[in-house]
């Protein structure tokens, strides 16, 4: 049988193990399990007569409540506003800009050159060289309309 005086160490070793898992697989899940195990170890250190069933129950309650509290906090936390909100949405950066057609729009499809990239466009049939304005993007195809 386990000696009652050193049982709290088992919980603290478990807490360190959870911290190691958190370092390997971050996501703030194992962190809360580690905190729960540390608290249970501290309770066992202070109240040596705590039975194993009470320890497991306390750990379970602390672990579940701390993980749920973290998830609720993380969900309601406001995200930072980026100074480049369209950084990873390259096509969306071109909405509202005008370009010249490098291939006429025939049967609803044509092409424009944007910097060093050629993009497909969709819009009304228009001759080569016409100025068009990008009004939307669907996948990798720009929706355009003729500039007046």
From TrEMBL:
The chain crosses the membrane at residues 29-47, 53-70. The keyword Transmembrane applies. GO terms for cellular component: plasma membrane. It is a multi-pass membrane protein. Pfam families: NfeD. It is found in: Membrane. Keywords: Membrane, Transmembrane, Transmembrane helix. It comes from the Bacteria. InterPro entries: Membrane_assoc_protease, NA-bd_OB-fold, NfeD-like_C. Residues 92-144 form the NfeD-like C-terminal domain. This is NfeD-like C-terminal domain-containing protein. It comes from Methylomonas koyamae.
């Amino acid at each position: 049988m386990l000696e009652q005086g050193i049982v709290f160490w088992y919980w603290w070793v478990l807490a360190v193990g959870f911290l190691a898992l958190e370092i390997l697989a971050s996501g703030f899940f194992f962190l809360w399990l580690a905190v729960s195990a540390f608290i249970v170890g501290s309770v066992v250190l202070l109240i040596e007569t705590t039975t194993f069933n009470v320890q497991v129950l306390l750990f379970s309650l602390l672990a579940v409540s701390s993980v749920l509290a973290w998830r609720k906090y993380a969900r309601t936390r406001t995200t930072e506003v980026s100074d480049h909100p369209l950084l990873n949405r390259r096509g969306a950066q071109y909405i509202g800009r005008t370009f010249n057609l490098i291939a006429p729009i025939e049967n609803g499809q044509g092409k424009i050159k944007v910097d060093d990239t050629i993009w497909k466009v969709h819009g009304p049939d228009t001759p080569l060289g016409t100025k068009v304005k990008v009004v939307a993007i669907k996948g990798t195809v720009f929706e355009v309309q003729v500039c007046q």
